[in-house]
What we know:
This protein is an alpha+beta fold. Helices cover 32% and strands 27% of the residues. The strands form two sheets. Strands 1-2-3-4-5 form a five-stranded antiparallel β-sheet, sandwiched between helices. Strands 6-8-7 form a three-stranded antiparallel β-sheet.
Amino acid sequence: MNFQSDSLFQLETDRLILCELSQDDxxxxxxxxxxxxxxxxxxxxxxxxxxxxxxxxxxxxxxSYTQHGFGLYLTKLKEDSTPIGICGLVNxxxxxxxxxxxxxxxxxxxxxxxxxSASAIINHxxxxxxxxxxxxxxxxxxxASIKLLEKMGFVFEKMIRLxxxxxxxxxxxxxx
Length: 176
């Protein structure tokens, strides 16, 4: 299947396409951000409308593409372009290293899509962006994400707080 995209960035794996998020992805982002597991493990962003989701995409991923040359990318099935999650890199305040981030809708978890998309992003970070290491942060109770990070070679470094009033979270590092 040929896939045409207006995006500047695109990665393809055996089953997935990762491309830049656009304002047109607001309905998908609204669903993902309000998933109970997102709220539990990542946090409630207070985004409840399509307009708020559009603004989140503009001020988050799109701004990051411009400012840093990377960001979180829409992850969709290659076979039919169904959006299933996001995966990419974040230059997060409070971290010394670029951070690998990912989240998937419940119907698409435990199918290997996290490993497949994150592996493509890791290779891009190493080979194209020439980063020397990546960070990843998780809620200590997010066992699935911790297992995925460890499977990709990330090593637990320490517990951190990204803000003075924030909860303690796990910091993992992957050296290239």
